[in-house]
């Protein structure tokens, strides 16, 4: 299910509910009201609101689900499933926000001690070592 909370600053808060390992997981995301995601969300909300009043016929003021339509309603209302990778990513993002280490991680990864910088350094060293060994082999072959 999705929920909307409009704010004065032009932001829309979208809450999605997922099923992960039998428990309900809520994911909240705040997006700009002019983004594609927010517009799609608002259209979906309008469709749900317009379809809700005429959902089931009433008998003497009480809604009674009929056989086939209630089965189709149950099938259509399944929660989206969340994979383990998505759940791990969500947990990591929440942990970074709670601990306040988002900026620190960004600075660290860009700096000299970052993973990408270390990988590039090791590749340069490996290539340089290969060139030295190749030059040594070629010099020994030409007597």
TrEMBL record:
Family annotation (InterPro entries): BCNT-C, Swc5/CFDP1/2
Organism taxonomic ancestry: Eukaryota, Metazoa, Chordata, Craniata, Vertebrata
PROSITE patterns per UniProt: BCNT_C
Pfam families according to UniProt: BCNT (PF07572)
Claim: Ion transport is one of the keywords in the record: no
Signal sequence bounds: none
Region (Disordered): 42-78
GO CC, one annotated term: Swr1 complex
Keywords, ordered alphabetically: Chromosome, Developmental protein, Kinetochore
Residue ranges of every copy of the BCNT-C domain listed in the record: 62-143
PANTHER family membership: CRANIOFACIAL DEVELOPMENT PROTEIN 1
Localization per Swiss-Prot or TrEMBL: Chromosome, Centromere, Kinetochore
Protein name from the UniProt record: Craniofacial development protein 1
Job of this protein: May play a role during embryogenesis.
């Amino acid at each position: 299910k999705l929920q909307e909370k409009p704010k004065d600053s032009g932001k829309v808060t979208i809450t999605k509910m997922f099923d992960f390992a039998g428990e309900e997981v809520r994911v909240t995301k705040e997006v700009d009201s002019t983004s594609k995601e927010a517009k799609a969300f608002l259209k979906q909300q309008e469709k749900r609101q317009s379809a809700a009043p005429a959902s089931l016929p009433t008998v003497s003021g009480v809604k009674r689900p009929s056989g086939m339509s209630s089965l189709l309603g149950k099938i259509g209302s399944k929660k989206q499933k969340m994979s383990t990778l998505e759940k791990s990513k969500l947990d990591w993002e929440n942990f970074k926000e709670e601990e306040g280490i988002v900026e620190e991680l960004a600075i660290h990864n860009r700096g000299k001690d970052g993973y990408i910088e270390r990988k590039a350094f090791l590749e340069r060293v490996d290539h340089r070592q290969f060139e030295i060994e190749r030059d040594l082999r070629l010099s020994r072959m030409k007597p």
